[in-house]
Amino acid sequence: MGGRLTRVFRTFNVESRARREISKEKPTPAPRHPASRLDELADQPEIQEEIYRKDDRLLTLLKDVYVESRDPPVQVKDGGGEHLPCKQEEKRLTKLGHLGDLDVKKVPKGKISIVEALTLLNNHKLHPQIWTAEKIAVEYSLELKEVNSLLEFFVPFTVQEFPKETKKAI
């Protein structure tokens, strides 16, 4: 609603306002400082003579100046063709994997693969007395706090099938 109202005021009498602005006299620019005018300098012969005159004393001093430039010595970086990480992470072999070559073989300590995460969540769901948070932390080289958070906030999906007679009731 507010957009319509502002549009009405903005488009009201647009043509006459535009003609009024166009018909106004253009403002005259501010006068320039007299020192900034180069035309007046060109008219004075003393200044022209001073500009084009050569100073022999300055020329001799300029000829005495000798500049020698040298590049700093180039340092060769020994890459060896392979970039090694600054800090080597300890890796561990994964527990499971039935995808063969597509499976992740090594995982950094303190992390788990998706297959392992689903497996440990399912094991904990099916046998919570056997697969406790402490056992999972030791088995997969994880911190106990992270395992507790994982078991609390992530739950694997469960498939539920309804009997045929209840489908009709729904």
UniProtKB/TrEMBL annotation:
<dbReference type="GO" id="GO:0032981">
    <property type="term" value="P:mitochondrial respiratory chain complex I assembly"/>
</dbReference>
<dbReference type="Pfam" id="PF06784">
    <property type="entry name" value="UPF0240"/>
</dbReference>
<feature type="region of interest" description="Disordered">
    <location>
        <begin position="17"/>
        <end position="46"/>
    </location>
</feature>
<comment type="subunit">
    <text>Binds calmodulin. Interacts with NDUFAF3.</text>
</comment>
<dbReference type="GO" id="GO:0005739">
    <property type="term" value="C:mitochondrion"/>
</dbReference>
<dbReference type="InterPro" id="IPR009622">
    <property type="entry name" value="NDUFAF4"/>
</dbReference>
<feature type="compositionally biased region" description="Basic and acidic residues">
    <location>
        <begin position="17"/>
        <end position="27"/>
    </location>
</feature>
<comment type="similarity">
    <text>Belongs to the NDUFAF4 family.</text>
</comment>
<protein>
    <recommendedName>
        <fullName>NADH dehydrogenase [ubiquinone] 1 alpha subcomplex assembly factor 4</fullName>
    </recommendedName>
</protein>
